[in-house]
Design brief:
147 residues; 1 helix; globular
């Protein structure tokens, strides 16, 4: 199939437990951090998935617990997702039918640009580049299916 693995239905693909390894690099200061944990995608009443991530984030040698919650709702066209923050605010769309997707999300004066790639049925990656007056970051996250 080449470099990317097409996903006909993103919600079906993501459902379940994934191990997560994320590196965070601040391009302006050179500082770096690492997150290790688990992401669970569980069915939501009414359709879609609840994305719950939890683990440990180490920044400048200091470990601390970290978590986040997102909602992946059925998108249009079918097989895609409408990704929202836990409070319902829009985040980005997600279409992995080609095995890759690029998304953008403005946050105040900064712009988040995400690149999603699916490697196979059990591995996918996101790379978020954040640029603007407040941030200059690269966040690379690798997901591997558990069980």
């Amino acid at each position: 199939m080449g470099e990317f693995w097409p996903v006909p239905d993103v919600l079906t693909y993501l459902a379940g437990r994934w191990s997560v390894e994320r590196t965070v690099r601040d391009r302006s200061s050179g500082d770096g951090g690492r997150f290790e944990g688990v992401t669970v995608f569980r069915a939501l009443d009414g359709g879609g998935l609840r994305h719950q991530e939890s683990g440990t984030f180490v920044w400048q040698g200091v470990p601390r617990p970290a978590e986040r919650t997102l909602r992946f709702l059925p998108g249009s066209p079918p097989g895609t997702a409408d990704v929202r923050f836990a409070d319902g605010r829009p985040f980005h769309g997600l279409d992995l039918t080609s095995g890759q997707h690029v998304a953008a999300h403005p946050c105040a004066a900064d712009l988040y640009r995400g690149e999603f790639t699916v490697r196979d049925r059990d591995h996918w990656r996101t790379v978020w580049r954040v640029g603007g007056p407040a941030k200059d970051l690269v966040l690379t996250t690798d997901y591997a299916r558990k069980g």
